């Protein structure tokens, strides 16, 4: 199967046999910023999936001409392309427990345009890979100037709502994402900066 790619603009494969309904749905998705590939049947949609690697989501009707209906199509899509977001929609049929594959959702017709768009965006966000954790070096690089500023300015630098306090909170969040052991490393930075500060030098004299 073609490897799925994740461009900045998500591509939706829209499978709908009624030309007018397909046109309206395409306009809704275009207005929301999606790239749309149209197919009138599940068989046509399969050919698209076999030859294109830029599809991230499938929005399919249930009652269509061809060899299979939308429920069967959704299950086969999940088997062959399990990373795709899948939304199945119908105004006549409702899915039974075994009809939908894992993580696919059913959207009954008629639906509001914002409901259609919101459902797709929710599925795409859920399936998006997590961003890589920041490196320890990056966290410490950010922590050092903050430590210097706090030691120089003292208490006012940590007043509620201060930009420095927000920045420190961000560094702590990055530290937690990087690795658990980064906490002691950040404390070491603060300790070393404190030992090198003018106040510490005066105390030692």
Entry summary:
The chain is an alpha/beta fold and 205 residues long. The protein has helices at residues 19-31, 42-51, 70-80, 113-127, 136-153, 163-178, 182-196, 198-204; strands at residues 11-15, 35-39, 57-61, 85-90, 105-108. It has eight helices and five strands, in the order βαβαβαββααααα.
Explain what you see.
The protein has 8 helices and 5 strands. Strand 1, helix 1 and strand 2 form a beta-alpha-beta unit. By secondary structure, it is of the alpha/beta class. Helices cover 51% and strands 12% of the residues. It has a 5-stranded parallel sheet, sandwiched between helices.
Structure characteristics:
alpha/beta, 5 strands, five-stranded parallel sheet, 205 residues, disordered N terminus
Topology:
Blueprint: E1 11-15, H1 19-31, E2 35-39, H2 42-51, E3 57-61, H3 70-80, E4 85-90, E5 105-108, H4 113-127, H5 136-153, H6 163-178, H7 182-196, H8 198-204
Helix pairs in contact: 5-6, 5-7
Overall radius of gyration: 26 Å
**Biggest pleated sheet:** 5 strands, parallel
Write the H/E string, N to C. EHEHEHEEHHHHH
Structural class: alpha/beta
**Total beta-strand segments:** 5
